[in-house]
Amino acid sequence: MQSIARGSVPGRRLLFLAIAACLFGGAVRALAADASPSLTFFGWSDQHVQVDGNGKHLEPAIDAMNELPGTDYPAAIGGQVAQPAFVFGCGDITEWPTRAALDTYKSLLAKRLKFPSYDVIGNHDEGGKSPSDTVKDWLMDRYGGLTYSFESGGVRFVALYSPYDESLNSPAQPVGRKALDQLRNELASKPTQTPTIVATHLCFDAMTNRDEFLEILKPYNIVAILGGHYHKAKVDHYRGRYFVQLPSPAPGSPSEVTVIRITPRRIVAIPFDYQHHRWVTDAHKMLDASLNR
Asked: Own/partner pairs for 173-179, CB < 8 Å, 24+ apart?
């Protein structure tokens, strides 16, 4: 083997190439680490557009979401709010599913909200003891099903519909058997390491069969579980899973929307109080956790 003298031109060239390769390789690894997942989106729930179509109470929340990009996060989080990929709603779009209520919501999404949106159905949207398909038909047309999935920023979302059992006469409900089967099948359609968020209307406190629900999630890389139903932001950590309850803009509820940021090693979910123009850093309402991958 021919040796190369130290300081020779070929030697310097090889040294330069070796250093460049190391730097380039490090840059590629860094880019790969940052490439998946990387996502910002906003969350809200329980919009409760009134039966006569009055949705004025949604406008401050929508305007706040439109203005949030570029806002500085609290110093402990760092950085600024990025342009969201979408806004996600966890159900109860309507007080009851009248055509006027749905038309108002559709108009606000199309004409006032600046970002794409996704929704899952809530118990009010089903019509209670006077069932209606008005909201159901819209969601079916919009997403292809009441339970559906999509991917954004390297994260898979599963929007899960579970029928509400009015005979229980309680806001606390189990996730239904059919819904659990659909969830099991959808999760199995992707590799177990796929970063995944599951969203349903029921929040942690309202889900009476959460242990059974979590058994289905057990093999999978579940980043968070989103819910609504109880009209306020809240975070629960149970059996190694994070439940993020999204806030409501309905009258009498805190004036908050939640910003969710997911990077390869970290998830942040923090409410923004748009009435007082400040972040809500209450430990029971926000999530700032590492993601072990």
From this structure: 173/123, 173/202, 173/206, 173/207, 173/208, 174/207, 174/208, 174/209, 174/212, 175/200, 175/202, 175/207, 175/209, 175/212, 175/213, 179/147
